[in-house]
Structures are given as C-alpha cells and as structure tokens.
Amino acid sequence: MLQTIESFDRIGEENAFAVLARATALAQEGRDIINLGIGQPDFRTPEHIVEAAIKALKDGHHGYTPATGLLAAREAVVRRTITTTGIEVSPENVMILPGGKPTMFAAIMMFGQPGTEILYPDPGFPIYRSMIEFTGAKPIPVPMREENGFAFSAEETLSLITPQTRLLILNSPANPTGGVTPRAEIEKLVKGLEAHPHVAIMSDEIYDVMTYDGEQHVSLLQFPEIRDRLIVLNGWSKTWAMTGWRMGWSIWPDQLYDKVRKLAVNCWSCVNAPAQFAGIAAIDGPQDEVEKMMRAFDNRRKIVVEGLNSLPGISCITPKGAFYAFPNISKTGWHAKKLANALLDEAGVALIGGPDFGVLGEGYIRLSYANSEENILRAIERIGAFLQK
C-alpha cells in the first residue's frame, strides 16, 4: 500500500466544484437544473480582451515569460491599483499568478507550520482553512456575524491574536456572505495591529469593484503602517468575467517577494503569455462591460433578497458586495447541507450549504446571483414550492 505524508490527508476542498459537477451530471441526464452554486459571472469575457489574446498568439507570444509575470502586465496592475486605491506600488512588488488561489497557497505556506496559528474569516472561502490545516498550523476562525452585516469586528479579531499567530486573512467584499467591512472598523483593526508586529496580513480583495448602495471598498494598501507585512490578493476572474483564464495578481512586501518568486519557479514556472496580454487589455481597455455587469448584478441582488425574504422560514439581509446572498434558513427546520442537497435532487436548484464555508456556516446557504434574472426567479419559485411541500 502506498504511503503518503500525513499533511495530504488534511487537504480539504471547495465543495462548489463538487456541486457544479453533480449539477452538470444531472443536466446531462436531461434534468432542468438552475445553478446558483458556482461563483462565476454568467457574462462573456469582453470582446476586446479576447481579441488581445488572439493577437498575442498570432504575434508569436508562445513561450515562457518571467516567473513574476510580464513587466507590461505588472505595470498595468500598478496603473489599476492607482486608479482604484490612490496608492502607487512598484511593479517589482507585483506578481502575476495563475488565479487567486496561488496567492493564498503561497502566503499560508510561508507562515503556516505546526505550533503556529493563522486567523481566517468564518464563514469564509473554504480554501483558507484547507490550506492552513495542510501546513499543520492551527486554524483560528474569525466570526463573520449576520448581526454585524457579515463584516469582521476589529475588537473580536484582535482578541484572537496570540504570540503564536503568524498570519491574519481578511476578505472584503466577502465570499460567501457578500459582507463589506466599513472603513471605521478597518482603521480600528490596523491601529490595533500596531501591538502585534509579528502578524502578517493577507487581504483578499478579489471583489473590490463589486459594492452596492454607496458602499466603498477600502483596500488595506491605504494604510502605510502595515505595508511592510501586507499581501494583497486580486485578479481578473470576477471583474472581467475571466474565471477560466486563470489570471490573478498579488502585491507583496519587499521581504516576501523573492520567496514567492522562487515558489513560482518551482511550482507553475509562469502564467501563459497570451492570457497576460489579455489581462493588460482588460485593465487598460474600456470598462463599459464591467459597469454593465455590475448594474445587472445589482438588479439581481434586489430580486434575490426580496424573493428569499418571501419564503417560509428564510430571512436574508441585503449583501453589500460581491455576487452572493447568504440567507438564514434556521427556521426551516433543515440542516443547511441537507437542504442544499435536497433542493438539487428534488427541485433542480444548485446551492451551497453554509457549513462548506466554515464551522459557523450552519443555518445558512449560499446563492450566487451570477445567473439570469429569469433563472433566479424560477429558482426562488422552486425553493418556495419545495419548502411548502
């Protein structure tokens, strides 16, 4: 019998992909399935971005690029960062990576080992905890509470830091809850972190442009006092509907940059060249398709919240960011994962149970409203009929 190292038995997964596979299999059997499970825009990548990749291929960009990414792509990220945050960073601190997860992987691997602790949002993106457990570090959940709009509490977060804490993971706007942490709470957290200089911070800002109702995303880059220990994760997947292109970027402090460069050399070598040219076109080209997509998400968000709150036993606060709703289903009498499974099998609606996003996710389910208004309305109708039955 083959013997693998114990750490590989600790790796979890992202159940949204398992639900996607199951929903796809049911659809192939002829079932009418409405997928509100996967966090993927249902829009096409804007045409000028696609054309930039085609041009790059035709122009002969078929080879390796630097492990850190093309300089032109890193400079594009610098321009975009100035536009969205008002902060200028050096291209020598920017990494181009194959998606957002490699930044999580690299950051958690750098700071996680047995005997250390890493704080992560809960409910939160499941890969945070999965990778923490893989390293042997102890995962410490930072509660994202419904009564707080699913934003983190600076006071509660700071109270969880110990001498063993090595990394604090933040995510706003947040997956799976749609929560957006206000500036005042972020400022309070940054102030409190002055007493904990041994703690690095990874800020997952992949949904940075996806805010509603006048909410403004606050980048941790805007706080120079933590810049020397701050890792910022971002990318192309959500903003420009480029999930399948596998294009992410991150901004690293000087002392960590060469470490992640070496990891890139050992792990993925580089990001494919044509996709990087597409990424440059996304940042520098017209943003009208992004704005159109955001208007559509805002309309769908209102439909989802109104529809969910009309269902028996379900209540849903209004998400302020991303494209997820995280309704409370505790009064239905169902456990969350059992309800999600039953809705897929019996009602043909794919959702994700809250426990897939952490130990504090019970009593909730996640819906992605990155689907058409028509399908959202059909899904709400089916969920209502199922619950009444």
UniProtKB/TrEMBL annotation:
Reaction catalysed by this enzyme: L-aspartate + 2-oxoglutarate = oxaloacetate + L-glutamate
SUPFAM superfamilies in the record, alphabetically?
PLP-dependent transferases
Q: Which Gene3D superfamilies match?
A: Aspartate Aminotransferase, domain 1 (3.90.1150.10), Type I PLP-dependent aspartate aminotransferase-like (Major domain) (3.40.640.10)
Q: Which InterPro entries match?
A: Aminotransferase_I/II_large, AspAT/PAT-like, PyrdxlP-dep_Trfase, PyrdxlP-dep_Trfase_major, PyrdxlP-dep_Trfase_small
Enzyme category, top tier? transferase
Q: Which Pfam families match?
A: Aminotran_1_2
Cofactor(s) needed, names only, are:
pyridoxal 5'-phosphate
Q: Does the keyword Phosphoprotein apply?
A: no
Q: What is its EC number?
A: 2.6.1.1
The UniProt entry's sequence similarity note says:
Belongs to the class-I pyridoxal-phosphate-dependent aminotransferase family.
GO MF terms listed in the record are:
transaminase activity
Q: What is this protein called?
A: aspartate transaminase
Q: Which UniProt keywords apply?
A: Aminotransferase, Pyridoxal phosphate, Transferase
Please report the stretch or stretches of sequence annotated as the Aminotransferase class I/classII large domain: 32-383
